[in-house]
Amino acid sequence: MGPATQQRHRTRAGRPAARRPRAAAGADDGGVRCEACGSGSHADELLLCDGCDRGLHIFCLRPILPRVPAGDWFCPSCAAPAAPAHSAKSAAAVQTKMPKQFPLIQTKIVDFFKIQRRTAFAAAEPPEGKKRKRKAASALVVSKKKSRKLLPFTPSEDPGRRLTQMASLATALTATGAVFSNDLTYVPGMAPRSANQSALEAGGMQVLPREDAETLSLCKRMMEQGEWPPLLVVFDPVEGFTVEADRHIKDLTIITEYVGDVDYLRNREHDDGDSMMTLLSAAPPSKSLVICPDKRSNIARFINGINNHTPEGRKKQNLKCVRFAIDGECHCLLVANRDISKGERLYYDYNGDEHEYPTHHFV
Question: What is the C-alpha to C-alpha distance for residues 233 and 169, in angstroms, rounded to an integer?
């Protein structure tokens, strides 16, 4: 990204001296530090909030900003002190009217999500060896603490309830003009799949263990067969579309992969969308990639972010967003970082450490 200009008055480089925040404690250069990463580098990409004068890099925001936007800018804390930021849209785009509901008709839902008809909406069968695992529950707890395995989601037993869950997502996708996709997509004119190389990640990217990669594949196969994760997309007049648990979800359960069209970050410098997610922070930066879920996406697009400047906001967080390498390619997963109760809304921290594997539960 180029040097600061007059339009980039929110950066440290362009902000008048009288508006600059005080240097962070311990800073030896007298400059502003990013609240997320603690660095004062890349000054022309360091935004200063017009409300509280906190600094944040555009690439440290979650979702990231492809460029320094024109006009006033407020950090998530000042922009929405009473409500969390959205992963799917800006505050200006939040709908105020109830959207038209997708028809609760099995054939239409099967077609919308391209469910395999032969097995669609069959009663959820208990996994093989479930009784044996129940008998060895105490041993599993010990094993879990040692192996830190991710868990597949447990679908609702009632096929009708799964239809309702799927219809809720179809409603949100239709209302926002998107189609369903459960994988990263590569579109002509954007980044090719060959650009998605985890080896390019600056500082390296952690590899998803084989067993966890198999669990992720299992989740996707279940969804292809109509075994849907127990999640509802609900509409809130203030927050817009948001996601809540439709049954109890265990800690370390895979919620979903963040998917959409993959593009180079450099191609999105003039994109006003705020739903992009970092996929690859490359060295060199010209090879960095983002996920753009505005045209093709799944339920991840509608999961909210927390206000991480307040204790109340941090207390809401129940998901962890982590980037992994799978077969040499980058992927972004949302994983439960604690038990989630039925009816609880899902939140994760856009500015969290994406390199941190969600193992802080184990001692």
Answer: 6
